[in-house]
Design goal:
The complex is a heterodimer of chains A (39) and B (240).
Chain A: H1 2-38
Chain B: H1 8-40, H2 54-81, H3 84-116, H4 124-144, H5 149-163, H6 166-176, H7 196-237
Helix pairs in contact in B: 1-7, 2-3, 2-5, 2-7, 3-4, 3-5, 3-7, 4-5, 4-6
The chains are: A mainly alpha (39), B mainly alpha (240).
């Protein structure tokens, strides 16, 4: 079963890291645009 | 028909509305798929419990091939119709495809060790899949390393169209050459070769992966549009 858990861990961690990075980048860009408008 | 593809603000708001639904669908189906894949479905009479790796390996492989095909189609449309946003669609798909491709290679390797007795073998299916990962990587390198963004996107579009030749090679490599990898058992002209108790969790996991890919795709597309907005705002503030 260790091989099964390792595969699920790899798959889910890769996808969730990509999701988290995308969300963080979106927040960063929105903040930058907001700051540019204010300036 | 494609006028909405020239309206970034419409795309941004449409993505904002759709993201919670696709993410919610992924969470629900992902939990169901995990339960069915890890607990509900039976173990294989030959491979035992390791067959459960199929429920992440196969959807990831389908995703990698499907996303590359979508990239090639959107690149063709972008070059013929001269729609800049179609280039962004292609660019938004690439990181997700690369992620799926790496998942397919790594989980395949983990599955290969207990089944074949080796982590890696240079057979046609594995090698062509590795080539697909290089194509995804090459596309991302191309679009991010040109002084003029448009030239990078056009070069990337050409690479994705030419590289698509690898997709049918991956699909039929197991039939064209003698490989250690098993032949197709689900997507084939004859009846699927596996039992419905294994097909059910496989399709549920495939749909949940597709929903997560859609969520990430919409976020990536929004990021690319926002990045362009930021660049144009900065140019207006600091005219050269």
């Amino acid at each position: 079963m260790i091989f099964v858990y390792a595969s699920y861990f790899v798959a889910l961690s890769f996808l969730l890291i990509l999701l988290k990075c995308s969300v963080r980048k979106k927040r960063y860009l929105q903040k930058q645009i907001h700051n540019t408008y204010d300036a | 028909m494609m006028t909405f593809l020239n309206r970034p603000t419409f795309l941004l708001s449409a993505c904002d509305r759709l993201i919670p639904w696709s993410l919610g669908g992924f969470v629900v189906l992902g939990c169901l798929g995990l339960y069915m894949g890890l607990i509900w479905s039976p173990a294989d009479y030959q491979q035992g419990e390791t067959v459960r790796i199929m429920y992440v390996h196969v959807p990831a492989s389908w995703g990698a091939l499907g996303i590359y095909t979508a990239m090639a189609i959107s690149s063709v449309i972008a070059l013929i119709k001269r729609l800049p946003l179609m280039h962004l669609l292609t660019a938004a798909l690439a990181p997700i495809g690369l992620c799926f491709c790496l998942i397919s290679l790594i989980t395949g390797s983990i599955w290969g060790y207990p089944t074949w007795g080796t982590w890696w073998v240079w057979d046609a299916r594995l090698t062509s899949m590795l080539l697909l990962a290089f194509l995804y990587g090459g596309y991302l390198l191309l679009i991010n390393n040109f002084d003029q963004e448009e030239r990078g996107l056009k070069s990337g579009a050409l690479l994705s169209i030419i590289g698509w030749i690898n997709v049918p090679i991956i699909k039929w490599s197991v039939d064209w050459w003698h490989t250690l990898h098993q032949p197709a058992s689900i997507l084939r002209f004859a009846k699927p070769a596996i039992h419905w108790t294994m097909i059910m969790p496989l399709f549920i996991m495939a749909i949940s992966f597709a929903l997560l890919a859609l969520t990430i795709f919409m976020l990536q597309l929004q990021n690319l549009i926002l990045k362009r907005q930021l660049i144009s705002q900065n140019r207006r503030r600091r005219p050269s």
